[in-house]
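Late entry, evening session. Most of the bench is empty. Finally got around to the prediction I had been postponing all week. Sequence below, unchanged from the version circulated by S.P.
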Amino acid sequence: FNSGGTGARAALDGLNATAFPSGVHTMPIEATENVGPVIVWRKELREGSGGAGAQRGGLGQMIEIEAAEGFSFRFSAMFDRLGHPARGRDGGLDGAPGGVALDDGTVLKGKGLQFVPEGRRLVLSLPGGGGYGDPAERPADTVAHDVRHGYITGEQAALYGKAQGKA
């Protein structure tokens, strides 16, 4: 079970990589690798995936999984927000849409049984939540914090109006 980001709230940023409304978190990588012949090569917050706003949308995740040598695997895809990103509200911008693909660029379906052949990695780009409020109202020091911590890129800081050039 893997989650994208939640939408920003009127007074708070969205939650990163958290299911809503349940708040369910994923299993630790070590537990997943111990149960099946898989290797999790990457699991990290997806930089820039939360929509810009006075309150930023929560970040999705980047997850990269491969079957152990000599194995392939199938998984049941149940992904949303692939073609339609989470929308921003009251001037906030949309979050980034999600994606399901192989490491060679082959795009997989977001729903149903999917196959990952031996030697290929499954790459999940989980969606970000929408922003809330005018991005120009986000304080410059908060935008700079987001850049320092890898939540947004320096280029994305320009979306925040008055914070441009201060990040």
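Two things to note before I forget:
Strands lie at 38-45, 61-67, 73-78, 99-102, 111-116, 121-125.
The mean pLDDT is 91.
Will write this up properly tomorrow.
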